[in-house]
């Protein structure tokens, strides 16, 4: 991501790009942390069951000796943590968990490319908690693990999971994010944390890397594990230099886990710079370097004129009206602008929908309240912009509606809000002539996922592109 570029804060507003203090140092090999856990069996060939599992879930691991764990009883975690998972009726490991858990616990750097809703949060949190218990370096202000994510909403969701499972082994998680008073977060850090989950901008503040002169509130000198969640989104939002500057504060012997739904050149460059040379790449799905959609999501694209777009949208809402077949099911409607989010939200409210909005116009407490109500089911429809909705990791969302087409990368992230954790979902998209520059890529995404490509979309792909 060479040169200066437009950056965004956690609300999606333009922000000043921070120049890095130094380029981050490339990590060296991390020490093994498998003392009381089951290490990866790198010398055992894959058996038939594992091969079948990898084929079914389209898992590719660039270490042929890597051995995924297919059952929770095989998970390489402390007994108390496995016991908690079993008591909570945790299902069989997802593809990214099965492939990544043994590698991460063995101390290897892991690069995981997997669709949203694939179980990646526990894919890195459980190995992180295992490492925290093994090292127990939670002196004041000295975490063992740092997790960075693009938005406050995702940070809070990760913290909730870390707190829930960390309680079983006495590990403490602290969330650090913008839009909330700094002093309370400073106090939490100074009381000690095993895992810090942070947005890059606020983490820069906590380390006093913006040069404000307040002094650091924590230290990463003993932080031996780094997780970058939704790395592609963080780079899209302009956080690359913040990430590199923060990583400079960590040991060169750290272990790094990088998770991304897509694999653009910007992510490839950061991965090459920050991960060890012997890192293991895990890909779930057949995408490779291409954008791919979750095949459990039914993608329905309507090509409409701008004048017919609103009527087409209203028709999509018919089935969710009070008393209709899908009334009460949870829906996310995406729009590209805050203005349209507010306009659509007002219309839906006036027509009896249990609806609220999530955009940069809302305060942090308002946004958290909406997400809490949506999760509980008291609000069944949320109208949102991309930035505000990133990190909405909520199972049971039956439908995603794209009022506007955002571009291929954001399209993949939007529709990934449904079809999570092995469930199916439906994504409806309205596509106009103004979006035609994306027609070829959208058609390919649909074809790769085995979805129908509308004739009107194919017609756009055949046109000579002057735009």
UniProtKB/TrEMBL annotation:
Pfam families: DEAD (PF00270), Helicase_C (PF00271). InterPro entries: DEAD/DEAH_box_helicase_dom, Helicase_ATP-bd, Helicase_C-like, P-loop_NTPase, RNA-helicase_DEAD-box_CS. Keywords: ATP-binding, Helicase, Hydrolase, Nucleotide-binding. SUPFAM superfamilies: P-loop containing nucleoside triphosphate hydrolases (SSF52540). SMART domains: DEXDc, HELICc. Its EC number is 3.6.4.13. It comes from the Eukaryota. Residues 296-461 form the Helicase C-terminal domain. Residues 101-281 form the Helicase ATP-binding domain. The keyword Transferase does not apply. PROSITE patterns: DEAD_ATP_HELICASE (PS00039), HELICASE_ATP_BIND_1 (PS51192), HELICASE_CTER (PS51194). One of its GO terms (molecular function) is ATP binding. The keyword Signal does not apply. Belongs to the DEAD box helicase family. This is RNA helicase.
């Amino acid at each position: 991501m060479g040169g200066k570029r437009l950056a965004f804060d956690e609300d999606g507003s333009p922000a000043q790009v921070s120049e890095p203090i130094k380029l981050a140092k490339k990590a060296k090999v991390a020490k093994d942390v498998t003392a009381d856990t089951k290490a990866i069996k790198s010398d055992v060939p894959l058996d038939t069951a594992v091969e079948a599992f990898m084929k079914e879930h389209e898992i590719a691991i660039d270490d042929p000796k890597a051995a995924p764990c297919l059952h929770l009883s095989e998970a390489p975690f402390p007994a108390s943590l496995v016991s908690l998972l079993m008591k909570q009726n945790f299902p069989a490991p997802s593809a990214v968990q099965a492939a990544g858990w043994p590698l991460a616990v063995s101390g290897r750097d892991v690069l995981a490319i997997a669709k949203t809703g694939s179980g990646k949060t526990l894919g890195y949190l459980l190995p992180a908690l295992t490492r925290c218990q093994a090292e127990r370096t939670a002196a004041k202000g000295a975490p063992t693990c740092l997790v960075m994510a693009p938005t406050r909403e995702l940070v809070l969701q990760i913290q909730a999971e870390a707190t829930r499972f960390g309680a079983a082994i006495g590990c403490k998680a602290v969330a650090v994010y913008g839009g909330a008073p700094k002093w309370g977060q400073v106090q939490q850090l100074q009381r000690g944390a095993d895992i810090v989950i942070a947005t890059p901008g606020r983490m820069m503040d906590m380390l006093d890397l913006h040069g404000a002169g307040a002094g650091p509130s924590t230290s990463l000198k003993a932080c031996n594990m780094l997780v970058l969640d939704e790395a592609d989104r963080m780079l899209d939002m302009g956080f690359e230099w913040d990430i590199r500057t923060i990583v400079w504060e960590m040991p060169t012997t750290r272990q790094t886990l990088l998770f991304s739904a897509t694999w653009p050149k910007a992510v490839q460059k950061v991965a090459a710079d920050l991960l060890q040379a012997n890192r293991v790449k895990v890909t779930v799905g057949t995408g490779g370097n291409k954008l791919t959609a979750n095949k459990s999501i039914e993608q329905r694209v309507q090509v409409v004129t701008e004048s017919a777009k609103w009527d087409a949208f209203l028709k999509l809402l018919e089935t969710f009206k009070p008393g209709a077949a899908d009334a009460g099911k949870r829906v996310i409607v995406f729009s590209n602008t805050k203005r349209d989010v507010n306009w659509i939200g007002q219309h839906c409210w006036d027509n009896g929908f249990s609806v609220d909005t999530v955009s940069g116009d809302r305060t942090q407490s308002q946004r958290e309240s909406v997400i809490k109500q949506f999760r509980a089911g008291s609000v069944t429809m949320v109208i949102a912009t991309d930035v505000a909705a990133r990190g909405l990791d909520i199972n049971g969302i039956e439908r995603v509606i794209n009022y506007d087409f955002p571009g291929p990368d954001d399209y993949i992230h939007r529709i990934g809000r449904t079809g999570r954790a092995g469930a199916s979902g439906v994504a409806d998209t309205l596509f106009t002539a103004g979006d035609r520059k994306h027609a070829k890529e959208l058609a390919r995404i649909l074809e790769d996922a085995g979805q129908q490509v509308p004739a009107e979309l194919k017609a756009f792909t055949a046109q000579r592109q002057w735009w």
